[in-house]
Amino acid sequence: xxxxxxxxxxxxxxxxxxxxxxxxxxxxxxxxxxxxxxxxxxxxxxxxxxxxxxxxxxxxxxxxxxxxxxxxxxxxxxxxxxxxxxxxxxxxxxxxxxxxxxxxxxxxxxxxxxxxxxxxxxxxxxxxxxxxxxxxxxxxxxxxxxxxxxxxxxxxxxxxxxxxxxxxxxxxxxxxxxxxxxxxxxxxxxxxxxxxxxxxxxxxxxxxxxxxxxxxxxxxxxxxxxxxxxxxxxxxxxxxxxxx
Amino acid sequence: xxxxxxxxxxxxxxxxxxxxxxxxxxxxxxxxxxxxxxxxxxxxxxxxxxxxxxxxxxxxxxxxxxxxxxxxxxxxxxxxxxxxxxxxxxxxxxxxxxxxxxxxxxxxxxxxxxxxxxxxxxxxxxxxxxxxxxxxxxxxxxxxxxxxxxxxxxxxxxxxxxxxxxxxxxxxxxxxxxxxxxxxxxxxxxxxxxxxxxxxxxxxxxxxxxxxxxxxxxxxxxxxxxxxxxxxxxxxxxxxxxxx
Amino acid sequence: xxxxxxxxxxxxxxxxxxxxxxxxxxxxxxxxxxxxxxxxxxxxxxxxxxxxxxxxxxxxxxxxxxxxxxxxxxxxxxxxxxxxxxxxxxxxxxxxxxxxxxxxxxxxxxxxxxxxxxxxxxxxxxxxxxxxxxxxxxxxxxxxxxxxxxxxxxxxxxxxxxxxxxxxxxxxxxxxxxxxxxxxxxxxxxxxxxxxxxxxxxxxxxxxxxxxxxxxxxxxxxxxxxxxxxxxxxxxxxxxxxxx
Amino acid sequence: xxxxxxxxxxxxxxxxxxxxxxxxxxxxxxxxxxxxxxxxxxxxxxxxxxxxxxxxxxxxxxxxxxxxxxxxxxxxxxxxxxxxxxxxxxxxxxxxxxxxxxxxxxxxxxxxxxxxxxxxxxxxxxxxxxxxxxxxxxxxxxxxxxxxxxxxxxxxxxxxxxxxxxxxxxxxxxxxxxxxxxxxxxxxxxxxxxxxxxxxxxxxxxxxxxxxxxxxxxxxxxxxxxxxxxxxxxxxxxxxxxxx
Amino acid sequence: xxxxxxxxxxxxxxxxxxxxxxxxxxxxxxxxxxxxxxxxxxxxxxxxxxxxxxxxxxxxxxxxxxxxxxxxxxxxxxxxxxxxxxxxxxxxxxxxxxxxxxxxxxxxxxxxxxxxxxxxxxxxxxxxxxxxxxxxxxxxxxxxxxxxxxxxxxxxxxxxxxxxxxxxxxxxxxxxxxxxxxxxxxxxxxxxxxxxxxxxxxxxxxxxxxxxxxxxxxxxxxxxxxxxxxxxxxxxxxxxxxxx
Amino acid sequence: xxxxxxxxxxxxxxxxxxxxxxxxxxxxxxxxxxxxxxxxxxxxxxxxxxxxxxxxxxxxxxxxxxxxxxxxxxxxxxxxxxxxxxxxxxxxxxxxxxxxxxxxxxxxxxxxxxxxxxxxxxxxxxxxxxxxxxxxxxxxxxxxxxxxxxxxxxxxxxxxxxxxxxxxxxxxxxxxxxxxxxxxxxxxxxxxxxxxxxxxxxxxxxxxxxxxxxxxxxxxxxxxxxxxxxxxxxxxxxxxxxxx
Lengths: 244, 244, 244, 244, 244, 244
Hints:
In chain A, 49% of the residues lie in helices and 15% in strands. By secondary structure, chain A is an alpha/beta fold. In chain A, the strands form two sheets. A four-stranded parallel beta sheet of chain A has the order 2-1-3-4, sandwiched between helices. In chain A, strands 6-5-7-8 form a four-stranded parallel beta sheet, with helices on both faces. The longest helix of chain A is centred in the first third of the chain and has 20 residues, at 52-71.
């Protein structure tokens, strides 16, 4: 099973190659023995995603990266942003490769562990709220709890970040959240979800782990997204047909 | 009141300048006497939007076009695609200009005229379904009814198009649609909604007319989208502040 | 475009003709140059509407007023009460005249500006809650925030009223309201929504302005309510037919 | 236990006193031995209710009838129309008397017998649909099935009526209705629900029987509607206080 | 009308026969004069139900008790636990006997008295939340308010219990509950709902009274649960057929 | 990773040990190389589950089997029935072992592959419908499609079964199902989902594969169900404490 975790922007420029290597190592440690995972960032796109505007900027580079990943025989591509930018478009375009969004994966797995969830994330929450709506899990959704630290500075003072996450999580649990989902991949790679869960008294879902697990599961089961939901773009189909 | 209707792609290349002029004239004829409307297409982007992939391609050119429109003093920008691509991102970025999506506008106006709506549109419907979900009007939504003609060929045989629209609309009315929304701007500019409504026995909503009316209404009322929903992207705000 | 704003009760008896003239002037100032708006109250009905009981009392006078307004060629009637009493009945009865309710109009326009809304209004909220339900916007609804001042005394101490509205609005924003709707027409005609919006940090929707704009929009677009939703009462149709 | 079933209009003028006596006798036969039921119509109001317009006309006579019924010591008033016109207003006004609507009662009792319901009724269905929404049972609601016979002629040819009801019911059962509610009081007093249920293979709910049972249940349990939902109209309370 | 209230476990072992006799007397005092009610506990099953695990243990003894109750001509069996354990299974198995769950009955009756409800109960709330979901009344549901006293000790210090119930109820009313449902049968038989309602200012629903009233109502109306929802188990039907 | 798939009843008596061995082999072939899966049935319980009654009978044997499985160090128990009987109770009772229900797992995984799902299953559907409700996925649910063959005879004529499944699936796809879930574990172990998916043109989800994958995923991620949702039964906790 070959899985590629794609960060939709030039993150190595912003935080260095070591951080990507660190993430790749973590993913490998979480995977089954027969799974090959790698992490890749993209030459263009936003440095980090903290707005719907940046989410939109992330899509064209993902689209550009798709064909070579498919050609290399990658089984599943995980889009490395919680709000799942571009996942629908990539699913339309992909021919044999599975595309997984960590946001949708984490919300549904949280639903398998408790009755309701809250999401601890960074501003701005509108994209996350819309993901909850399109996944149709708003009936289980308590609220977002915001940690007001820029994404690229979350690791600068991990203790302060952890305190802020704890505070945001506790407020959500007090309002009825029976599970907490981390709504930011840079939070996910802090690898603190079990420590945070112990403090909060409820499971904390790591979207990176869960996206990896869902990708494995679907590849092993031979399951692909529905073509009724994500048909190939008609103009591309036509071109492909006339090229034959 | 200055309104600019922006077609997110090089439509004039595909169908000629005359079609843009025709659409501009129609919009002018629908507007109040003190409203100045113009139609503009963009140098890059998809020729037409028939997939989520093309929707995503339409956003960067819209983002690029925003500053000059704001600088020219345009009061409201209407995004010329029913599924409202880029509207959220543009609302984050706009400083004084209102951004209106015809899809959301048409669905809420339909809701003011009857208890339920169906949407007559071209494939593929997933983006339209997601718009219904994020507008939170799925409880009023009967279904989409598809007219299987490529967007750029809808005007080739208007009679055939009208017949196909009638058939799709009748099926939706039979399933309980108390109003019909046209879910494609090229259908809107056929200007056949009253004729179709007479055939179907229920109102047919033209998203171009309605988006224009909603833009007028909001400009006159001095209403802008909520900054709680669409805050400016933090990195841009920071840059702007450090540039001062 | 001829629009008549009808206050469903003898308001001039309670607060004097000057108040009606003031409201008419405000409406004129908000309208497009080719729109003719007038305000009219009715000889019978409740002095103000602060209960479902009074709402019901307001309907027969509205029904009585309908035929002459239609005969005069009025294009659109706006029912001057936020909870939209009688709108459905008037739509069944009207033959060519559009009937608009400010409550439904304001809730849907608020939905075009942000993800959720709260309603600042006077007691009692049950009718307002039911309007939210029948408009099917409960999924966007945070709550009502009550200003405990009788409707007819809202202008006695405008500053105190504004403070109470601010407090009610702030509580709703703290609970997640991304927009605020004024749920009382006497509040709407205080014309303070922009000042209140500046204090609250979110848009405040004036139902009088919005109802006017929606009436204009629908008249220009030639759109009428669905006859599938609001058919003419069968016994009246029969009478009309047998009278022919 | 004293219960009064009030028909909101001069039905005896339309169909004669015998029909009222027949209905009273039926209600008595359905009640517990210690329950005293009577049927009463009102001097004004619509002859029958087949539109929202007529529903609204029915309310003022009901309001007028309330004080004397309360003075006579009636424990519970049942409003004799399925769409529950005036129930909310009467609940605001009543001081000690319970007010029951047969529509809400029947929908909730149907919900105790099966997972979903359909409603067999006469046109026009918008008021019935709105009742389903305000009772918040739309998630259980399959659809209305219409019997196109004027209310006052349902008994003219009972066999034809029964056939039409059967057909409407079968179509709803085929679409998933696990119970059927009769949505018209004149259908209820045909007393055919068990025969119809045997044909359809699912329970058929008689709203007259159920409203009676619910009224009994609530009177015995000493339960009244919530004053948080139905507070007394403030102006009346003020008058009552200043009169003291 | 013969009604049997069955406590699904050996409660007399835990609290003595007197408590069962006390409950039977209360039920008799609430019933119509022609109703014969008795209370019965079962030889096996949990001593009290405070978990989903105990709920499940309660079902086989209920199933075992069913045939003899049916043979004795009991018209309706009320399952004496608020979360309605076994009701669906018993409905599948019963041939002529009505089975009523007090939880579903109380939630629907609360819905007839106000717009929203909260539930005052003992831990653990997951089963209660699931009942609200399967009754599809989550849209009216504010929350559970927990009284942290073991079920079998609720009567040890009735004043303390009443204070804890008041506190839990007040918190729910402050959050918008327009009615309160008691979510535990041992609370119901404290017979304090009117006193509690007076304190809280909203109706408090006693599930024992309401289940009794609903059972009466359905027996008098000759209504049984839908066989479309609760068909007889196919293997039992087959056995019965081959035994013939 | 040790996983035990438990069939809640004496299935080997009904269909022989070979069938259990066959299922175990299939599960092994689907699992990652480091996963150890075994299949076990139980000495008591129903022969198959085709009613809510039989579902309830399946729970006590599952409860009895739990402690020894935990003692043996099993990481995850999969309950071998689509409607997930006993999962909530087992989660309350389990101390370190994960409990997974194939129904919930399959519905959430289907939600990751398409916008809506239908369920092809055997009668009776009420338990399946309730699972959809408690998983809160009713908004994505099209309907159940029934294959009217007894569970234990599904393999008697596999071709006939496959035809019936195809027909049921096609009807659901025609009504808008974008994915199909197999709602019966004996269907799952026919291992025909890809062949069926090819016929239907949409993904067909095998609940056995998916439950296995979800169990793996959660064990690797170290995730357990929320104790806020599934707390240990208080009386057992008390006993355990007083035993210390």
